[in-house]
Every structure is written in structure tokens, then in C-alpha cells.
């Protein structure tokens, strides 16, 4: 029986989603708990994709297979009782046998939270990116508009992912909202390259500070070279917000 | 030269304010940094009072003595550069030689944040207290009113502090505000007993849930016995908000 679960996690104390030796990862915590529930039998967990160290998730999706006949509400309860305080299962459902959390993704939404203020907010230091600079939200909105559509995003791809040949991706929606001192960047697309959202945010910040014009984004896309985009924005402001399936 | 500083800290990863062997405390971090600034010479830090493990501060006040002639803005900078990310100095000023951060306190304000919701907010688990119960804010407000004034608060004193004989304290203001699902309890007074605010909040929660009537607070005050008050509310919702001097 294949189970799908929507989970959220605080990425602060994880070395990312994906399992790796000698560090704490979300995947390992999930698999450890499932192994306990299955009385020692290993259960592989598949996610919609990985998230990096310090990146949070509000709606990560995973799937796993089980022989146990536990009602879905009990699954949620059992997992939440056994999982550490920084991972939470929001919903568990029974899906058809060919559902795949990664291969069946239709779109993903990420959000990035920026707080503008002279002082960084001590209590949100792991959850937002603080900047002392004034940001021109209108210029940033213009830039968002240029990002929408199908483009080769080579300029917005971190160097860890050189093996990926095709860097054409489609952003269906990109926009930025301002609520007093808080700026929320939301981006929805069919696929994202390594560090793509964080490099986009780093570039938007330069535009917001007036160091670049919004239309420079067009040139940056055209040159297909990482060095022309802005810095990679820090991990702690980024959230994998929602994963969409058919 | 005596310096006064207003500081804030995230209490999550501290075993409280006061220095103790083998655990991480706010006082030790402050004294370590001051010792470095004074080239190895120990500098004692005095605070307005201690805070317990997990309790936060938005406006704790400390004082220390120094021979160094550093301008006040440089003090702020130097301290913030060297302090860990969960302590921040908001303001440093030069005060008269007899100022004392603890003895000269006129009033203190504490706040306690409660969030009502079916699910606890994963990202605020260290910063608020989450309850799934509906709370009657009007009943809680009535109870706050009863607390105001000068009373013997023996019923609201944690057992760690039995050596304190006089348990008469004055609460100058106690009120609770609701903002959607968030309840903020604010209390201002000339002095507080050990765990007093958390026991008051625990009792207010019972009143908010309808398990007790607001007027029972009068009886609880009269009996002067800790067992008649509510549970001690968890540390993570509590903030030492502001300390007032002459």
C-alpha cells in the first residue's frame, strides 16, 4: 500500500533533507520512525525533492510503501508522536500504487521571506533574511515579471549541479508582496535548478537596493553564466511552500 | 565607570540567565565577552534579575564597571560583534556610579504569548505557548483585574523560593489582548516571586478554558497556598519585556 504524506519542517537543525552519513537529515528521521513502526523493517521514503541545509518546508510531500493496515488518521498520529519536534506530518493519505512524490510533481511553490530593518530580528534569525537596506518593491516586481515563462536558467544555477545539462525551466508565477517591513517572494514553477530560488532572490535584492535595473534580468538570462547573477541568498529565508500534483 | 546595557536574548538554548557550572547561561556569555574586551580581566555583570531556562528577554537590563574609555556606540558594536547570535545588545549608556541594575528597579513588565490553534506552530515552538482550547478572553480579562493591586502572592510562588518570607507584591497593571489567534498577557509590577508570572498564566488558562470562574482568583489569593493555583505555564511563552528605573 502506498502512502503519501504532506509534512513541514524547521530546517535550522538539519543538514538538509537528503540522507547523508554522520549528519542529521529529515529523510533519516522519517526513515528511522517508519522502521520503528514496521518493527525493524527498513522503509524507504521518497520526497518531491531535496531541500538544502537550513531551508524550511511548509508543504514537502513524501511517499512510502507499507504492509501495515493502519487508518490514515492513525498514521498521522503515530508519526507525529514519534517524530522529533522539528518535523510535523500535516496529512497522510492512501494513494494509487504508481504515485511518485518526485516524478509526478506538476509544480512547486517556494517562498522567501525578507525583513527590512536596522536591526535583525533576533527571534526570527533562523526563519527570515534580514536586511538593513531599503528595498524598492516596484522594481523587484518588474523583475519578477521578466522571470515568468520558459527560460534557460543557467545563470541562476548553483555550481553543485553542473551535471544537469538541460537548464530550461518554466516559472509559471513569480511575485513579491510587501507587508510593512516584510517582503514575501513567491515563485511557482514546473522545476527548479540547484540554488535557483536563492540566486534569483540574491539578484532581486540587488535590484531592490537599486544596484541593478530590473531589465538587466533579461541580459542575465541571455548570457547563461552564473557569475552575472547576484549572490545566493541565505538558506534561512527559504521555504518549500507547496507541491502540486495532477 | 559604570555602564548600563539593555539586552535581548532568545532563551531557547540557555539554562537561564544566571551563571552555573557546566551549562550555557546568558551571564556567562556576557562575562566571557567582557573579559576578552578587558584583555583577560574578569568583569562581573549584574542584571535586573534572573530569567529561567527557556525564558526570553526583550529588554533585560545589566550593569558592569569598566576602566576602558570606549564611546557608548562602540560598546554596543564591540559587544554585538563578539556575543553569540542569541544575545543582542540594544543600547549601552554611561550611568552614575551608584546605579544598580537590580536594586534600582522600579517596575518590570513581563509578557506571555499564547497561540490558540488545533495545530501548534512548528516555527514558533520555542517562542509561544500553543493551546488547542478555545479561550474566553473576557473571563481572563476579569481575572487580570483581580490580580491588580497589592496582594500576598504565596499561592503564585514556585517552591524553589521558600526562603523568601515576604510574599506581598504589587501588580500595577495586568491585562490580556487578543489579536486573532494570539493572546498576549502583559503584567507590570514592582516585584515578582519565583515562577509567579507562569503560575498566573497557568491559572488564567484554566479560567479561559472555563474550568474555573474569574472570581476564584480572589479565593486563591486568600488561601496563600500554591496547590490551589493552576499549573506553571511553560517557559517558552514568557518574555521579560521591559525594566523600569527612576
UniProtKB/TrEMBL annotation, chains A, B:
Choose any GO biological process term that the UniProt entry carries and state it: tRNA pseudouridine synthesis
Which InterPro entries does the record associate with it? PsdUridine_synth_cat_dom_sf, PsdUridine_synth_TruA, PsdUridine_synth_TruA_a/b_dom, PsdUridine_synth_TruA_C, TruA/RsuA/RluB/E/F_N
Q: Does the keyword Coiled coil apply?
A: no
EC number(s) given by UniProt: 5.4.99.12
Cite the GO molecular-function annotations of the record: RNA binding; tRNA pseudouridine(38-40) synthase activity
Similarity field: Belongs to the tRNA pseudouridine synthase TruA family.
User: Subunit info?
Assistant: Homodimer.
Relate the protein's function as given in its record.
Formation of pseudouridine at positions 38, 39 and 40 in the anticodon stem and loop of transfer RNAs.
Q: Mind telling me what this protein is named?
A: tRNA pseudouridine synthase A
Q: Which organism is it from?
A: Gracilibacillus halophilus YIM-C55.5
Q: Which gene encodes it?
A: truA
Amino acid at each position: 500500500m502506498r502512502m503519501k504524506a504532506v509534512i513541514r519542517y524547521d530546517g535550522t537543525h538539519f543538514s538538509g533533507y537528503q540522507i547523508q552519513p554522520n549528519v542529521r537529515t529529515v529523510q533519516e528521521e522519517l526513515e528511522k520512525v517508519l522502521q520503528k513502526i514496521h518493527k525493524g523493517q527498513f522503509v524507504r521514503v521518497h520526497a518531491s525533492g531535496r531541500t538544502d541545509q537550513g531551508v524550511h518546508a511548509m508543504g514537502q510531500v513524501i511517499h512510502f510503501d507499507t504492509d501495515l493496515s493502519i487508518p490514515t488518521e492513525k498514521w498521522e498520529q503515530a508519526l507525529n508522536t514519534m517524530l522529533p519536534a522539528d518535523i510535523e506530518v500535516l496529512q497522510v493519505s492512501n494513494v494509487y500504487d504508481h504515485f511518485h512524490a518526485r516524478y509526478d510533481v506538476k509544480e512547486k511553490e517556494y517562498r522567501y521571506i525578507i525583513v527590512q530593518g536596522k536591526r535583525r530580528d533576533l527571534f526570527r534569525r533562523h526563519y527570515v533574511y534580514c536586511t538593513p537596506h531599503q528595498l524598492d518593491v516596484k522594481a523587484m516586481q518588474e523583475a519578477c515579471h521578466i522571470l515568468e515563462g520558459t527560460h534557460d536558467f543557467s545563470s541562476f544555477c548553483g555550481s553543485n549541479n553542473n551535471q544537469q545539462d538541460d537548464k530550461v525551466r518554466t516559472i509559471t508565477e513569480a511575485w513579491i508582496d510587501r507587508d510593512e517591513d516584510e517582503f514575501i517572494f513567491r515563485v511557482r514553477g514546473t522545476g527548479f535548478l540547484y540554488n535557483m530560488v536563492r540566486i534569483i532572490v540574491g539578484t532581486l535584492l540587488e535590484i531592490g537596493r537599486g544596484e541593478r535595473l530590473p531589465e538587466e534580468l533579461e541580459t542575465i538570462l541571455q548570457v547563461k553564466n552564473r557569475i552575472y547573477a547576484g549572490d545566493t541568498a541565505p538558506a534561512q529565508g527559504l521555504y518549500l511552500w507547496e507541491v502540486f500534483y495532477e
